[in-house]
Structures
1.
Amino acid sequence: MRNRRRSCVRDRRRTQILTRDGFDLSRHPISLLSNGTLGWLQILNFTLTGIALIAFAVGVRRAIEGERSGKWGPRLLFVFGSGFVVGGLFRADPEHGFPIGTPDGPPAEVSWHGIVHGIGPAVAFTAFYIVCFVFAKRFWAEGSRVFAVVSGVVGAGLLVLLANPSTDGIGVRMAIGVAVAFAWTSALGVRLLRSTPVTAA
C-alpha cells in the first residue's frame, strides 16, 4: 500500500504541468506550481534538484581542482544549484489566474518571498550562462572543439531565450531553458568523468 502511494506521488509530480487545473505553460512559469494544495511537490522538486546540482559542483571541483576552470567552474555550478534551492524554499506569488481564483495579471503587491524567489533563478541562470563560457574556453584549449562550441552556443542561446523581458510564452521558454541546461550539465559530467583518470584506493 505504501509503495502504491509513493508511486502515485511520483506520477503526480511528473504530470503536474498537464494535470493541475488552470495551469497553462504558455502563460504560467513552472514556479507557480509551488502554490496550491499540491505546491509541496514543486517545492520539493526545486529543492532536491538544487541539492543534486550542488553535489555535482562538489564532484566537478574534486575532478578538475588545480586545472583550467577548476576554480570558477565549480563555484558557478554551485551558484546554479543554490538558485534552485532558493526557488524552492521561497514560493512565487500566485498570478495570472493560477491557482484558480487568483486575479488575472501580475500580483498587486509582490511579497518578500516572491521577491527572493525571483532573485534565486535569475542569479542561478546568470551563473549558468557564464559557466558555459568558462568550460567552452577550457575545452577549446584542450582541443575539444565540438564540446567547446556546443557549450558556447548553449550559454549564448539560453541567454537570448531567457533574458527576454517579455512574459509571452515565459513558461515554455523556461521549460526549454531548464531542459537544455540539464542536458548540458549531464553531458559535462560524462565528459569530465571520461577524462578523469581513476586512481587506486
2.
Amino acid sequence: MIVVLALVALLGAVVMPSLLKMQQAWQRRLDIQNVMAQIRSLGYRVRLAGQPAAFGPAGIMPSDLLSMPAGWEVGAASPLIYLANGACLGGELILRHDEAIEHITLPAPLCQPATP
C-alpha cells in the first residue's frame, strides 16, 4: 500500500508542473482573444462615441475604450489614430504581459487584426 501511495505521489509531482503551465498558456490565449475582440470593435465604438482615439507609448486615449486583463498593457511605438468617423490610419500595436510581447499589425482603413 505504501509503495502505491509513493508511486501516485511521484506521478503527481511529475505531472503537476505541466498542468500548471498548460493552464497558464490557456489563460494567456484567452486574454489575447479578449483583447483582439475589443480591438476589432474599436472603430465601431469610436464612431458611436463621436470622438477620435489614439494609441501611443502610454496606451490608448481615451483610456476607457479598452478593458485590459490584469497584468496586460497595450501601446504603440508610433501613434495609431482612430478618427471620429471610425476609420483608422493604420499602424502596429504592442501587447505586453510579463516577458511576452505580441505585435499586432492593423492595416488602414478598418484596422482589423488577424485572428491569433
3.
Amino acid sequence: MVAINTQTILITGASSGIGAACANTFARENPRLILAARRLEKLEQKAWELNKLHGAEVHLLQLDVCDRLAVESAINSLPEEWSEIDILVNNAGLSRGLDKLYEGDFQDWEEMIDTNIKGLLYLTRYIVPGMVKRGHGHIINIGSIAGHQTYPGGNVYCATKAAVKAISEGLKQDLLGTPIRVTSVDPGMVETEFSEVRFHGDTEKAKKVYQGLQPLTADDVADVVFFCATRPNHVNINEVILMPVDQASATLVNRQL
C-alpha cells in the first residue's frame, strides 16, 4: 500500500457528500488536505472537525470550479508548501432536474455542463502539468453509473458523466509513458445531497428516490477512492463501478415498500 501521509491531496466539492467523506477518510492518514468548495462556512467546519479528530493539516479554497480564472488563480496562488499536489479528486458535480430533453431548463443544462465537465477539465488542466513535471501524481474522477447507462429524464446529466468517462480514458492515454495514474470511480445510487440538489431543494421528493432500498453512503464511495489511491505505484485502477445490492442497473432497483 502506498503511504499518503507525505502527500498533498486536493478534493473539490469537499463541503458535503462524497467530497467531505473523502476528506474524512484521507485525513486518518494525516496527509496535507486542500479542500475546495463554494460554501466556505461548511469548509471551515469540516477543517475544524478534521483537525480535532486527526490533527489534520488543512488548507481551504473557497472556489467555484466553473470559473476558469478563479481556478487558475487559486492553483497559482497556493502557498509554496501546498503547491505540489499529488492526488486530485475531481468530485465537484451535480444534477439538475429530470425533465424530458425537449422540455429541459437551459439554466439546469448550463450548470451541469459547467460543473461536471468544464470544472473537472479546469482543475485537471492546471494541476496535471505539475504532476508530469515532478513525475508523480494521481487523478481520481468521480463519475457515475449515469456515464455508462442513460435513464429517462437523465439526458444531459448522463451526457456529462459520459464525458467524464471519456475524459478519464483520454487522459490515461495522454499520460502513457509517465508514472501518473488516472482513475474513474463511478457509483450508482448514493444518498447524499445529490437528489435534493437535483430537485432544487425539494426534500420530500428527494427522499422518495431512496425509499424502500438501502443506497450506498458517501463513506462507501470514499473507501473505494482511498483504495484506488493507495495501491502500489505500478498499479492503476482505471475504473470502478459500484452500486448498492438493491440496484442492478441505472433503472432497475429492488424496493421493499
4.
Amino acid sequence: MTDNTTEATPITAIFKMVYLAALEVFMARNDVRYYLNGICVKPCSEGGVLLTATDGAHLLMIRDKSGFASREFIIPNMSHVLKICKPAQSKKSKILSDTPSAIVIDDNRLNIVTESFCKIERAENELGEYQDHLHSAWPFKEIDGKYPDIERILPRETPNIKKATPDPAVQINSKYLADIHKAMSRLCPKTKYVTTIAQRGKYDPLVVVIGAPDIEAFAIIMPMRYDETENCAVPNWAYNSPSPEATKETAAAA
C-alpha cells in the first residue's frame, strides 16, 4: 500500500491516449493482485514517461518521450475512457483539431484533450492551459497500491541474435502473440511494424521488441515449462511426396 505522503501528493501527467488502448490488452482482469487491474504510469529516467500493463504472464511497456508524470501511479480500469482511446473512435471526428489525442491527469480529474492542444508549445513538465481544449473529463482516483518492480524480471543481458544458440523449442501461450498483434493494431493501425523475439535462456522471459516509426515499446512473454522429451520436429505425415522408387514404378506402369 502507498504511504500517507504519496497519497497526499497531487498527480500531474500527460501522455498519448492511444497508448492506453494498446496497454489495455495486457492488463489483468479481476485479479486478486488488485494493483495489476490497471496501468502503471511513472517518470522515465531518460525523459518522458513509462506506461506498463501486465497480468503476470505477459507484459507491455511503452515510452512516451514527449509525456511526463510527476510521480508513479496506477490508472484503474476506466472502461468509458478506454473506449474513447481506441483508434476506431477517433476516426469519427470530422475536424482534425477536435480529435481526442492525449490524456491529461490533473490531481483528481482525468481529462481527454484534443489534437489542437498537443500542437501548442508549453513548458517542459507543465500541463499548460488544457481546459480550452477539452474533449471530455471524469473524476479520477488512482489504485491505492504498489505496482510490481518490473525491472526485476527484465533480462540484464540481451541475447545477440546473430550469435545466439537457442534451445530447439520453447512453449508459450499463443494467445500472448495474438495480444501483441491486437495491441499494435491499436497503437499504429495504419503503419507496418515488425517484432523481434529473443530469449537468453530456456526458461527466461521472451523479449519482444516492437519496431514501428515513432513507437518505443516492447513486450515480455513468460515461457511455459515443457517436457524435455517434447518433439518439435515437423511431423512425418507432412512429408507425403512419393519416394523416387515409387515414382519410377508408377511411370513404368503407365
